[in-house]
Structure formats: C-alpha cells, structure tokens
User: Which sequence fits this backbone?
C-alpha cells in the first residue's frame, strides 16, 4: 500500500457509508480506490488498471475523460455553474429539453413534449408517480390513486419508487412505510412462472395484468414498467409484443402508462428509447443514467401536453406541480448531456449497439463455443452480470436489439 492510499482507505473506513454495500465486509476488506480513468479503464491509487465493465453503473456512454464532454463542461463553467430553474430559465436546460423532445418516441399525437428535470432516476420516478396522480386528481378522476407494477421491478430507492418496486431483498424491509398498490408477475421467459414457451404462449404473462386492469381500472392511476428489460431485477427480457399489448390494454382501460427507461434508455437497447422498438409512446417516460455520458447526475421525466395542461391554472387554484430540487436543470449537467447527444449522433453510437447486439446473438447461437456473453457493455449497457451462454438455454426470445446481457 502506498502511504496516500493507506491514508485514504483509513479515512474512507472511518467516515464513508457506501451504497448497497454490507459495511461489515467493507471494513474488513482492502477496497479498491479508483483515482483516475482513461477511456474504458479505471486506474486505482496504486496505478493498476481495471476494465470498467459496469460502465460505472451503466452510465458511461463513450468511456471516461471524453474531450468533447470535458470541453462542454469547461465552457459552461466559464459562464455559470448553477442557477435555479425555479422561476428562471437557463440556455443548456432549454436546448436539452427541445433536443430530448425531438428524440422522444414517435407518436400518433404530439407525443412527449414536456421535460421535467431532476438528478437521479429515483427522483424522476417519484416525479412520474406524482404527475400521474396529480393529473388524475386535477381531471376529476379522484378515485384513481393506485399503481400497478411488476414483480422483480426496480425503480430506485426513494419511498415512492420502492412502493412500486418488486425486489423483496431490497424492498421488503420498508413495506410498512410504503403506499399499497397492485402487482403482477413479470414477463419472464427464461423462468416462465406459467411454465410456457415463447412464442406458443401467446404472451400469456399479460393475462394477470389484464385481470388487475379489468378489476381495478377505476382506482388505477397508472401502470409502471421498465420497457423490454427489467434490469436490476436480473436482466429479465420481455418477449416481443409484450410492451405493445400492455400499452393497448392501458388505453383500453383508461390507465396511464409510465415507462421507466432509466436503465434501457439513451441508446442502451439499440434505439434511443427502448419503447421505440415496440412503437409505443407512453404517457410518461423516465430517463437518467447515461444522459450526461456518465459525467454528472441528471434525469428527466417527459410527458404529454394533456398531462401538463391538467396542472395549468391561476395560483390560487393550487394546481401547480409543487415539486423541485435545488439542482433541478443544472446548467453544467445539461451542457454535458448536450455534448453527449452530439457525440452519440456524430459517432453513430446506436448503430454500434446494434452491431454488438448481432454479435451477441451470434454468440448465443452456439457458434462462439463457451464464450461468456456478458463481456460486452459498450455503451454503459446494463450488463454487469456474468451469465454463461448455456444459461440462456436457447429459450430467450429474440427480436429486440439490446446490449443488455
Ligand atoms: C430502471 C431503473 N429505474 C430507476 C433507477 C434508479 O436510478 P438512480 O440510481 O439514478 O436513482 C434505476 C437504477 O439502476 C433503474 O435501473
């Protein structure tokens, strides 16, 4: 141990409480201290290099220390680092909102035209839940107060997000604090709870969802799902057609659809937003993680004119969306996001994802012998797990381009 590293480790163990980390093990161990990075490599305090296989938690789109993003942040620093978005505008947040609206999923109507900023995926999910609830309240559907979510869902760690979460290990302990809702099984082809096989199953996993909608649509305000892939729940891929049919059911029963694209969005499933692959435009879409290319915390909740309009009124009507964070729409983060989007466009990042996805499909086909498919994580893809090719058993439905493996 170099003296500097020794000092840092001692200070860390004395004062830092690490997330999702059993601190007893941490305190007994000899942790890595990442001091630098270069491209896809992390460099620790002793100068050793490690491949950033989790893309720093699925955020790093182009690797670390990207000159274009560095420059964008430095330029913005030369103007202003932070001003509040509460009652003021700033150029990067305005430009970015317009850009994201342009990248939103195609829609029969105007689509997702409004962008609400926050700093983390969980916050953006909270905002989505509150927007959906507020919309129902403001439009006279006051009985609509509950949400339908899926088993194995992960939407973040704040209490609203945990209320619609479905991973008992993370969420069960907090149940007394959570709001009640409805839950349906995940579309889980690899371990189908119905014992069926795709495609002969005809997406039977939607039946329990439809049953809840049928029975409870009058009290249901929204359905929230991670489109195409439940990421943190174990990279559980939905079969093709599932999202499209779910969307149709939501429309049929008059229930809003919230898509949490924190893990799947910003190109990580081969299209900018995963829902594009099923031709679905939700009522509310949440994105975060790779938005700034892995540089700064930024998340968005995008929604429709109809939902936005429901909050319009005179101040005394109290229809205002009373939600915001101190750093909402931070100009540095928005400048980084704009540079990230420019770079994705210039380097054709999405085409690269699709190429790698084809390579993965080839690997899965058996042609690559015992190759471990999870070694690809080129765009900060959900893909921290190592899953042997044989584990997929050839039963994984194909049809979606995705780097998540
Ligand atoms: C689908 C999904 N939603 C929300 C979150 C929470 O995002 P954050 O960690 O930025 O709060 C995550 C994080 O992994 C996620 O995968």
Assistant:
């Amino acid at each position: 141990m170099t003296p500097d590293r020794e000092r840092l480790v001692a200070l860390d163990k004395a004062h830092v409480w690490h997330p999702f980390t059993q601190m007893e093990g941490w305190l007994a161990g000899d942790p890595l201290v990442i001091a630098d990075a270069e491209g896809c490599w992390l460099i620790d305090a002793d100068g050793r290099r490690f491949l950033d296989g989790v893309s720093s938690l699925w955020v790093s789109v182009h690797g670390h220390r990207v000159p274009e993003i560095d420059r964008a942040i430095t330029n913005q620093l030369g103007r202003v680092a932070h001003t509040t978005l509460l009652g003021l505008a700033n150029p990067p947040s305005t430009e970015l909102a317009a850009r994201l609206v342009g990248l939103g999923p195609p829609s029969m109507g105007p689509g997702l035209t409004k962008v609400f900023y926050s700093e983390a995926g969980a916050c953006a999910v909270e905002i989505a839940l509150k927007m959906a609830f507020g919309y129902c309240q403001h439009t006279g559907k006051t009985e609509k107060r509950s949400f339908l979510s899926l088993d194995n869902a992960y939407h973040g760690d704040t209490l609203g997000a945990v209320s619609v979460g479905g991973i008992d290990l993370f969420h069960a302990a907090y149940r007394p604090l959570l709001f009640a809702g409805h839950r349906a099984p995940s579309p889980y082809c690899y371990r189908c709870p119905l014992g069926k096989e795709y495609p002969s199953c005809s997406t039977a996993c939607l039946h329990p969802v439809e049953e809840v909608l049928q029975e409870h649509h009058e009290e249901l305000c929204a359905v929230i799902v991670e489109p195409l892939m439940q990421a943190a729940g174990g990279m559980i891929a939905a079969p093709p057609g599932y999202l499209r049919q779910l969307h149709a059911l939501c429309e049929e029963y008059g229930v809003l659809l919230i898509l949490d694209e924190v893990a799947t969005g910003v190109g990580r499933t081969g299209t900018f937003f995963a829902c594009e692959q099923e031709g679905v435009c939700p009522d509310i879409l949440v994105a975060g993680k790779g938005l700034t290319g892995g540089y700064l915390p930024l998340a968005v909740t995008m929604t429709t004119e109809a939902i936005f309009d429901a909050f319009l009124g005179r101040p005394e009507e109290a229809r205002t969306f009373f939600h915001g964070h101190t750093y909402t729409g931070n100009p540095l983060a928005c400048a980084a996001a704009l540079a990230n989007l420019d770079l994705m466009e210039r380097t054709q990042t999405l085409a690269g994802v699709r190429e790698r996805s084809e390579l993965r499909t080839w690997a899965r086909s058996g042609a690559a012998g015992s190759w471990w498919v999870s070694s690809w994580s080129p765009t900060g893809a959900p893909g921290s797990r190592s899953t042997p090719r044989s584990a997929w058993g050839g039963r994984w439905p194909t049809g979606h381009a995705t780097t998540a493996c």
